[in-house]
Structure formats: C-alpha cells, structure tokens
Amino acid sequence: MSIFKEFRDFAMRGNVIDLAVGIIIGAAFTGIVTSLVNDIIMPVIGYALSGVDFTNYFIVLSNGKGAGDYTTLKAAKDAAAATINYGVFINAVINFIIVAFVIFIVVKQMNRFKSVLDAAPAAPSKSEELLTEIRDLLKNKS
Q: How would you class 68 by CB atoms within 10 Å of its CB: exposed for 0-12, middle for 13-18, buried for 19 or more?
C-alpha cells in the first residue's frame, strides 16, 4: 500500500473530518465569545468595580528612553521600558474564566438538548391504547 493511499485513508476517516469541522467552528465561535467578553461582560465588570482597568497595572524594571514615571503601560512601552505587566495577565485570567464559563454553559445546554432529543419515546397514553385496540378490532371484523 502506498504512503499516499494510507494518508488518504487516514485523512478521510470520520474522526479526522469531525476534528477539522470542530476546529473551524471553534475558530468562528472564538470571535463571538471574544465579542461577548470584550463588549458585554467586561464593561459590566468594569462598571461593577468602579471603572477599574487592570491594563495599566505594571511594574517598571528599567527605564526606557524617557523619564521613569510612566502613568500608563502604553507610555512605558513607547519609551521601551522593561515592565512586568501583571494587569494584562489579570485581564487574561478574567477573560479565560469568563470564556470557560460561557463554554461550560453552552456545552451544558447542548447536552441537555441532546438528552431530550435522545430520550426514548414516551409510552402511549391510555386514549392512544384504546384507539389502537378499537382499530385492531375493526381491522379484524372486516
């Protein structure tokens, strides 16, 4: 068997195709979740914390080109100062927690809907059983 045929067989397996579809949908879903976090949830958290923005929390390790009293991270970066940007890290952790929670809720709801769809059909009601008996009796008389 040639290496190309083996690769084709591998690539055309259902699991590989499912994985590719999952990655593509996940990439598209990332944009939605990013917008949810940045445009809806983070402003609410910022408002709840009285406008606290962790982005400008940093420690200057060494001054850059200009004077060393940087009021914003952008000013420190523009001056090429060496900084530890712990505020950016805090924002990343908050974003991760929010995204993980949103994904958890989405997966939980999808599993709930799937379990409803996969549930066995309910037993026939008494009236359905009676109608079935009547149908069978009429069928047997004729």
A: exposed
pTM, entire model? 0.55
- The β-bridge relationship of strands 82-84 and 59-62 is antiparallel
φ, ψ for residue 63, nearest 5 deg: -70, 150
- The alpha-carbon radius of gyration of the chain (Å, integer) is 30
113-142: per-residue pLDDT in tens?
888 777 767 788 888 889 999 999 888 887
Q: Give residue for tokens 């290496």.
A: 3
Cβ neighbours of 76 (radius 10 Å): 24
Distance CA(29)–CA(37), nearest Å, equals 12
Cβ atoms 98, 88 nearer than 8 A: no
